[in-house]
Amino acid sequence: MAFDRSVLNVFLILSFSSLSLLGLSEGHPQCLDFAPPFKAAGGLSFCREYSDLGCCTSNDDQRISAHYQLALANITNATCAAYLKSILCLECSPIAVHLYDAETTQVKKPFPGLCRNYCGDVYRTCPNIVPYVTNATVVLNALRSGESNFCSTIAITNMNYCYPDVLNNTILSRVYSNGSDCVCLKKFAQNLRNPLLLLSPDDGSGRIFVGEQMGLVTIYDKNGTRRNDFFLDITNIVLDSSSPGDERGFLGMAFHPNFRLNQKFYVYFSIGQSGNFRNRISEFTTSTGNINTINRTSERVLLEMQQPYDNHNGGQVRLE
């Protein structure tokens, strides 16, 4: 069926590839063993800035401290000693996996990623601390070949995470917070089967719509109360399956930008039978006098596409 361009353009996101938001799509706390950070039992006495949330146990802290104390026999400059302490303690950072580029490569770099200006300061002022951080040949050779080559060698894939600028990043700074501005989780809905979308229309109601793959959309009021009647129930026409990995069914929904006025929304779902099915985009409107249910007779089919496989059927619908 031909697409009706008299309505808004409807786009399907038919790929599950990672999206990058400000280059920070992988931005989350993680340690070098790929486990989440934690609060060190008893705190840390050396890398104490990472006591409340970090990746080092007290044993790790003692090991780093002992290594630092041995280095001080040859490093008498107080500035250089401070640089060395900060760099050695980076393995205790709650985002250590990013500082050492381990999430991207699955291999810890021999030297953490330093921001260019900071790297230049370290190189010009205290190049003698580098061998106390790593004995990796590639880093030591770069150290001897000049500042530019050294800083390029220790650079990480995503320099948004370079130290120390990452500490002031307005997005990533939340991983260091245990205060009132932290992100808190609260159970919102339960007893759902394959929930795959959560939407809220821009109509001032504060309602939240939760969709399930079987073809159901439930409304939750802004206080978290679930309405008894389904907003959308197309289970009788949606092709769904309980088989693991089956990606057919109710797959996406989007509200018209003027939903407040026209009460239109768009649904993307699978129809037909196994071995001979299609994905459909339809326009619906809500029931007259009741914005919490749909008018089933209002369905207007905008697009249908034959699909050869049960998986990779896409997902969200967007209006542009």
Quick overview:
By secondary structure, the protein is an alpha+beta fold. It is built from eight helices and ten strands.
Describe what you observe in this structure.
Helices cover about 20% and strands about 20% of the residues. Strands 2-3-4-5 form a 4-stranded antiparallel sheet, with no helix packed on it. The chain has a 4-stranded antiparallel sheet with strand order 6-7-8-9, with no helix packed on it. The chain is of the alpha+beta class and about 325 residues long. Strand 8 (about 275-285) and strand 9 form a beta hairpin. Helix 5 (about 115-125) crosses helix 7 and helix 6 packs antiparallel against helix 7 (about 145-155). The protein contains 8 helices and 10 strands. It folds into 2 domains: about 50-170, no CATH class; about 185-320, Neuraminidase (6 Propeller), CATH 2.120.10. It has helices spanning about 60-70, 80-90, 95-100, 100-105, 115-125, 135-145, 145-155, 260; strands at about 10, 195-200, 210, 215-220, 230-235, 250-255, 265-275, 275-285, 290-305, 315-320.
